[in-house]
């Protein structure tokens, strides 16, 4: 990659020639030699920026009405696509044109990171929200004992690493503009005086936008709804524009992807480009791995990604959707990279035009000025999105972690009252400063070839944050000294092996030390350190810097005893999911005054905000007003957290320490506080568990109570019905002594029948109650099922004969013995058989009794040839008081027979069911396992089970 | 002219006793064994009064009562609900559905006859 021609966007545009195109598009191409007027391009850019303002303004307005547009996983996922900068937009095509599939790892990495490491992100979000973290520098500083030194170092690395990346964006916009407005045949305007002011103007306009939406107010959560909405909108714009160009190239200039790839394969250079291992060399696995890992790390640790993914996240749940939407976005924006690259190479001829500009120059050359303008706006949106978010993130870091600590040392500052205005001014100045630095870098290094690899160099810089960040989140032993040592070593090696050589190669410096090593010491050659020659320069740099970084971080952490404050912060970070806000330990001992803390908060957040915060806090703690708050450790922690949101945790720590009287904590104190907190947590957990158990028991009781009520209501109904007939008929006979004898006889017969029904009902209700309560007596013995069934058949034989029905028995000669209560089984059989007898037709009635012996147990079937049970009643037939069939045809049923049968069978570990749709008649089946283990059912348990079935 | 009464109940023995009782009182008695049949008979025979059991197959007494009240042709039919569920909520529900009177099972034949007479009284002046 280092060997490729790196000029980003063509200064040599004027020098390029258009070859005679092989497929008759020359005329169109010649028409395309026109250019766009500067006024049009400037106007479109300005209009686009205005539109961005409108989107951001609208989102801010909505947010103030409480109808936030960014409380949405889609917007969140789209805002993540700020990852795709102008470098993606123009550079991917350039990379693909020279390296084939080598543009891919930069997008595979983030995809892998989102899929594999979303839990890491979730933890990061939880930590950042809980402790009001405002930036990646703040995150690290806070974790390692709120160390201002660490915050400053991280900020410094970020600025050094990111400024060139911003310059790259500015350059992309300005070169794109130059390409659009310079006639294709005309000599380039070169380094003209007015145009440079144009880039400056772009930088300043973006600074203005960033200031308006990034630092309008000081927020202790550092969230910017308008900015996020605008970024999500930009992500849509750049995707649409890029895909539009891709579609145009693939189907407009060529006959679809098939045609395009077929033509490419016909050109030997392009064919070589498409094979993974180029120029006969082996596929560079190490480099592929390094690039993928690098982009995995940078998608999490780049300041702008940390800003949109962690700081601006409104709901952890959004992460789940973003975990696939963002990778899908990356896929979509990469689909047309190869087609555009190949299309450009075929159209202009290999090496004839700058591949980085294909996105613009292809539509332009084909005479589609409108599309070229759209493509330019897409590139503009990619660049502006990156610049805005990066500037906000970096300015927050510069303000909180570089400027504030210095200000805090000044005596004048400590005497100032409200400093909120000053804070905003510092951030605004930082935004302008960062953008001007970017502009300056672009201005000075604009010609330098190093610019293109700046993207990767920046990636490598932020990758240095990974060990201390990840270690800090998962390893309590990670210490401040280790983080500092690792970062310093990693950063130093990054400068030596990556930054300096790239500067040297840009021609500003002699390249001797790259080729031969400083002072001619070969072992110290920056790109082959200690004789490591087998890696390309980026993999090489990454290897050494991360090796030193991780090694020192771990070793120093293990060697040094951490301070109490580091230990307490480590606990708070690593165990962030274990504790709720209330049970989180507060590592502070000392004396404070509410008035001092209120005044301090007022200085940084404004007096009105501070008063409201204290009032809310008082209410939450049950105090009548702010003056009655207990000035305890929790209040101190509350104030410190709120301040951290505005000025960073390290500065907040210093400020709070300045107004309270603190006791120094040692390790024992930390452990004791932690112990108290865990006890508190254990108590509250035990209490929660007990409450949950009580609630469950209560619910169970309530449902049992309902079941009992239903049962009683049904029993009452069943008792009253026969009583009604008995009473009415008896009264009729009493009233009419002269009733004809036949009539009287009929009535008396009914009365006798109904009393029998009552008796049966009472017996069965008692039986049921006994079984259900577990008080039934079971006289178990070895049962021979064949003999039992024969006996049942004989008993029921007479009943069946009366109804003109026959009984058919299908029994095997012998089955294993079964342990059960023979009387209870007989009860089941009699119930099923007499039931069957009730439902057989008057003519040709037939009841079958079958027994099968299986491996697990015995199966008994009782089938009649009646009308069967309607499908609608299948589910109800085993419920209490639900009788099958017509009411008219159930003279003897109580509605408890089948439920009792099922209870008995289940007592022996078996199952009873109505075989679904046998075609003819009803078929009741029950199984009994050979090894039944009758378990005494606890009172009410089977009743509840019955209820579940209902 | 004798007054027509419909007795709707799914218990055959209750039907027998009620049929005997009402015939003894001099009414013309029709019977139905479920809710749907009750509705059909009401529309066909136009009885003055229905003795309506609540728990019946196909259509419950509540449903029958509701449909009667919604049908202009038969909405003036008097309804006396009979139920074996004597809970207050059941009584309230029956009256809300438009029943004219409510009797719980088991009932005294004298009380029932009295209630039937009361219901029919205003419409049979001079009887």
Low-confidence stretches of chain A: 1-33, 185-195, 884-891, 934-950
Report the helical percentage of chain B.
40-55%
Taking the sheet with the most strands of chain B, its summary is:
5 strands, parallel
The largest sheet of chain A is: 5 strands, mixed
How much of the polypeptide of chain B forms β-strand, as a percent range?
15-25%
Characterise the protein shown here.
The complex is a heterodimer of chains A (950) and B (127). Chain A is mainly α. Chain A is 66% helix and 5% strand. Chain A has a 5-stranded mixed β-sheet. In chain A, strands 1-2 form a two-stranded antiparallel sheet. In chain A, strand 6 and strand 7 form a beta hairpin. The longest helix of chain A is centred in the last third of the chain and has 69 residues, at 667-735. Chain B is of the alpha/beta class. Chain B has helices at residues 12-24, 35-45, 61-70, 88-96, 109-120; strands spanning 4-8, 28-32, 49-53, 78-83, 101-104. Chain B has a 5-stranded parallel β-sheet with strand order 2-1-3-4-5, with helices on both faces. In chain B, strand 3 (49-53), helix 3 (61-70) and strand 4 (78-83) form a beta-alpha-beta unit. The mean pLDDT of chain B is 85. The A-B interface holds A 713, 716-717, 720-729, 731-732, 735-736, 743, 746-747, 750, 753-754, 886-888 and B 10-14, 16-18, 20-21, 24, 33-34, 55, 57, 84-87, 104-110.
Write a brief caption for the model.
The complex is a heterodimer of chains A (950) and B (127). Chain A is mainly alpha-helical. Chain A is 66% helix and 5% strand.
